């Protein structure tokens, strides 16, 4: 699903959201209900593609945890209602690549000390997205973060690596990387909500929203 650069978004008045964020947001870019429906469709596409392979789901924290949880739950439900049962294991890795709203040159990978368990497994990533070994990540921007992580994963020689991301951002610095599965292509905006944060705030916001200058200043570190 592609969201155009001139998409005005939805008025905040149409939705409920935590009162402590009043005045900190510009608009709702993607409502929670649409996120849920699109994630269910991604789960169906993944089920069709992976065949009889068992899955190790590698969730990229922290921004990917809600997308990963919802995606895994949809896959489990589809598996229960089909003749093909898919075995899934879930593990976690944490990446830190932003300071305030700026991407850092040096990315930190935490919790990835024992990636050897992925050897011979099907690998996906849920970033938001965020899986098998799927990597679940929340958002793919320039792709630099993904390349660093994938280089580390590939050393373990997994049977297959796939990447699922909830969001892909159109940026002025693309490197040609695209995840195998993604929910929405969005403009080059700093978005928060649905576990995406700005200095650890806004993770409790269900919708994906655009933060305003007041919100950035209020929570800047």
From TrEMBL:
SUPFAM superfamilies found in the cross-reference section: PRTase-like
Protein's pathway: Purine metabolism; IMP biosynthesis via salvage pathway; IMP from hypoxanthine: step 1/1
Main location: cytoplasm
Subcellular location: Cytoplasm
Any one GO cellular component localisation term in the record: cytosol
Domain Phosphoribosyltransferase: start-end pairs: 34-198
Keywords assigned by UniProt, alphabetized: Cytoplasm, Glycosyltransferase, Magnesium, Metal-binding, Nucleotide-binding, Purine salvage, Transferase
Matching InterPro entries: HGPRT, Hxn_phspho_trans, PRTase-like, PRTase_dom
CDD domains registered for this protein in UniProt: PRTases_typeI (cd06223)
Names of required cofactors: Mg(2+)
Name of the top EC class for this enzyme: transferase
EC number(s) stated in the UniProt entry for this protein: 2.4.2.8
Single GO term (MF): hypoxanthine phosphoribosyltransferase activity
GO biological process: IMP salvage; purine ribonucleoside salvage
This protein's record includes keyword Transferase: yes
Keyword Glycosyltransferase: yes
Catalysed reactions, semicolon-separated: IMP + diphosphate = hypoxanthine + 5-phospho-alpha-D-ribose 1-diphosphate
Stored Pfam families: Pribosyltran (PF00156)
Family, as annotated: Belongs to the purine/pyrimidine phosphoribosyltransferase family.
Protein name: Hypoxanthine phosphoribosyltransferase
Species: Glareola pratincola
Gene name of this polypeptide: Prtfdc1
């Amino acid at each position: 699903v592609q969201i155009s650069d001139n998409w005005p978004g939805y008025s905040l008045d149409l939705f409920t959201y935590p009162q402590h964020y009043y005045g900190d947001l510009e608009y709702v870019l993607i409502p929670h209900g649409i996120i849920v429906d699109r994630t269910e469709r991604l789960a169906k596409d993944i089920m069709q593609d992976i065949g009889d392979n068992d899955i190790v789901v590698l969730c990229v924290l922290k921004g990917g945890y809600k997308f990963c949880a919802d995606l895994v739950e949809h896959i489990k439900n589809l598996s229960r209602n089909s003749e093909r049962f898919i075995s899934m294991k879930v593990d976690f890795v944490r990446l830190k690549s932003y300071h305030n709203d700026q991407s850092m040159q040096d990315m930190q990978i935490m919790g990835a000390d024992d990636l050897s368990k992925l050897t011979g497994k099907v690998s996906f990533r849920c970033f938001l997205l965020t899986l098998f070994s799927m990597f679940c990540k929340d958002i793919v921007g320039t792709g630099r973060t993904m390349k660093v992580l994938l280089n580390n994963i590939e050393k373990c020689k997994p049977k297959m690596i796939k990447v699922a991301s909830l969001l892909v951002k159109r940026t002025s610095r693309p490197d040609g990387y695209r995840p195998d599965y993604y929910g929405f292509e969005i403009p080059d905006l700093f978005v928060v909500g649905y576990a995406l944060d700005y200095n650890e705030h806004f993770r409790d916001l269900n919708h994906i929203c655009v933060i305003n200058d007041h919100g950035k200043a209020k929570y800047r570190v």
